[in-house]
Amino acid sequence: MTGALFLVAFLGLPLLGIGPLLWMRQRWMPAGAAGATACAVGAVTLCGEMFALTALGIPWSLPLLLAGPVLLALAALYRRPGRFAISGAAPEPVTLVFLSFLLIAVAAIAGVAFAAMTARVTSSDLLLFWGAKGEHFGLARAIDVAFLRTPPDHRLLHPDYPPMWTCLFGFGTLVAGRLPWGATLATLPLWLALSASTVWSFARRRLGAAEAMAFTAIYASLFGFLLCESLTAGNADPALLFFETLALSLLIFAREEPGAFLLAGVALAGASWLKLEGMAFSWALIVGSALAIRPMSARRLAALSAPPLAAFGTWLAFCRSQGLIDTLGADKTLVLTAERFAVIARGMLSAASLHSFYVPWVVVLFLLVLRRTARAEAFAILVAALVAAFDCSIYLTSPIDPTIWIGWAGERTLLTPLLALLMAGMAPASRSSRSPERLRAV
Question: Which of 167, 292, 401, 411 is most buried, judged by most C-beta within 10 A?
């Protein structure tokens, strides 16, 4: 029962985010896309509340955390009763091709669920970092600053690391009464299924059911394998993949729609609050969009960039004011030597094999060449290049040989460039085809 309550806390995130969508009246959204977006908004809203309460010195409680999102949703319904709608499903013939790809996607997610729930694909990060912090925060009913400031006992918990995943674990602990460690493993298939649903729902608007399901099967199979191979059950990486997928889906399949850039910005805020890699992705997406998306107005750019910059900026300011600076304040000295470049090149090349003989990269390259969408979605390819450059720059600042560091984290950090390239390969060949058939929803 404790594990079920913990998972209910995660499954209820879309309900916490439905209020802002009601106010924005995103009628163009298909049901699956609306659910995924509401989940992202709910997670960001919940983390923001928990962060704000901690800053104000007010202990967390379920009534206090739920009151704001519920009242906002009720106010939106009262303000515009019966005027909010999401796109309904358009009947399409169920083909053998569609069913085949659907079976592949379901089988991939089921396989990931089996691997996760049998504790085959987790790591010490869950036990020593994510779970330990999340459970303590939930029991303390706050982001426990005094606990994080205790040296040297808790230094390896990285006191200034972005707070969302530990806040979500803290919220689950509040709901369940404690942290059910076994149930945390189920977050891997849960976020993978949500990410795959995001790809399906957004892609179907532009590509049709069969093609969208084919890409969904590729996505679920590819990242299901890679998330398992990277031992991420219970860690923040699957959730980070979801926020990145949502932001890219909004800008690739729906950027002409009202509110798309703001919602992508909210997804970037979630990524920035999840991991440091999420902030790097946010910067890359903002810069890539500014350089390659046309038209890009100042309003669009502000909507995209303000949420992640505000999220990470407030967290950094909080850490500085509370004396929690650790990773974010480390001195960085570039080591620009031929030997260091050679070490990084060898390490990244080895990590890029992804324990699959480079097959994921071959799949992505095949899609990019086959569909010829590189020019149309140059911003996604630019994002991949910028994130990869950021990863390499981090290794250039390591005070010691970064070989072990690359071996430990290289595969996980390369998932983001791979995702950006895969999403570019999924993009429609032309952005002008907006027929009613393409706009029909899930």
Answer: 167
- If we measure between CA atoms, which residue out of 409, 411, 405 comes closest to residue 354? 411
Q: What CA–CA distance (Å, rounded) separates 339 from 347? A: 12
Give ∠ CA 308-378-227 in degrees, rounded to 5.
Answer: 60
Give which of 23, 413, 434 is closest to 230, Cα–Cα. Answer: 413
Beta-ladder partners of 441: 89
Provide the token pair at 431: 């952005």
How far apart, in whole angstroms, are the C-alpha atoms of residue 48 and residue 31?
A: 25
Cα(234)–Cα(301) distance, integer angstroms: 34
Helix crossing, 276-292 with 378-396: angle to 10°? 140
**Could you report the per-residue pLDDT of 262-298, keeping only the tens digit for each?**
999 999 999 999 999 999 999 999 999 999 998 899 9
149, amino acid identity: R
- Tell me how far apart the alpha carbons of residues 252 and 141 are, in angstroms, rounded to a whole number: 39
Which pLDDT tens digit goes with each residue over 315-356? 999 999 998 888 887 667 788 889 999 999 999 999 999 999
Mean pLDDT, residues 132-146: 95
Work out the number of other CB atoms within 10 angstroms of the CB of residue 148.
23
State how far the Cα of 159 lies from the Cα of 172, in Å rounded to an integer. 20
Length reported for the chain: 442
